[in-house]
Amino acid sequence: MLIGYVSDEDYTALPDVAVDFERGGQVVYSTRSTATGAILGDLLEGEYRATLVKAGYGSKRVVLSYQVGGYPHSFRLLSDSLLGAMSPKWVTGGERAEFASIATGWRRSSLSLSAGTTRTGRVPSCR
Q1: Domain layout of the chain by residue ranges
Q2: Could you write out the DSSP letters of every residue in 66-80?
Q3: Are 9 and 79 in contact (CB under 8 A)?
Q4: Which residues of 83-116 are buried (b: 16+ CB within 10 A; e: fewer)?
Q5: Would you tell me which of 13, 29, 67, 111 could form a disulfide with 21, CB atoms 3.0–4.6 Å apart?
Q6: Which residues are bridge partners to 120 per DSSP?
Q7: What is the residue-wise DSSP string for 8-72?
Q8: Residue 120: per-residue pLDDT
């Protein structure tokens, strides 16, 4: 039976994700996602805590209510790579801009200014 799908932050299917389903503190079913990101298994209807793990991605625990023949659950794992964006996307001389980032640990970041100078600093983890 199809339980759900697992993907990354860009909604790209993630194959070979380890998935454990727990009930009452005991693992009752373990499986891995397929090449299309599908999570297949034989679960009884009810409440479960799903734990999803894949190297290079942040682990996730989710409480879900499973129903046979119900709508598949969508699970997303965020990659360990640095994600970021400028806000606003462009500015003119003298205006301010902010750089927002998401990282799983400390990263060194450098910004090039239009005058050709570079500033470097540490970016803290969001965890």
Answers
A1: 2-76, 83-123
A2: E-TTSPPEEEE--BS
A3: yes
A4: eeeeeeeeeeeeeeeeeeebbeeeeeeeeeeeee
A5: 29
A6: 110
A7: -TT--B--S-EEEEEETTEEEEEEE--TTSEEE----SEEEEEEEE-TTB--EEEEEEE-TTSPP
A8: 54
DSSP 104: S
Q: What is the model's pTM?
A: 0.69
Contact status, residue 45 vs residue 67, Cβ threshold 8 Å: yes
| CB atoms inside a 10 Å sphere around CB 72 | 12
What is the rounded CA–CA span in Å between residue 28 and residue 65?
Answer: 15
Q: Which class for 21: exposed (0-12), middle (13-18), buried (19 or more C-beta within 10 A)?
A: buried
Return the C-alpha torsion angle 98, 102, 104, 108, nearest 10: -30
- The CATH architecture that domain 2-76 belongs to is Sandwich (2.60)
**What are the tens digits of pLDDT across the range 82-122?**
677 777 777 777 788 777 776 666 667 666 655 555 555 55
Q: How far apart are the C-alpha atoms of 97 and 99, rounded to whole Å?
A: 7
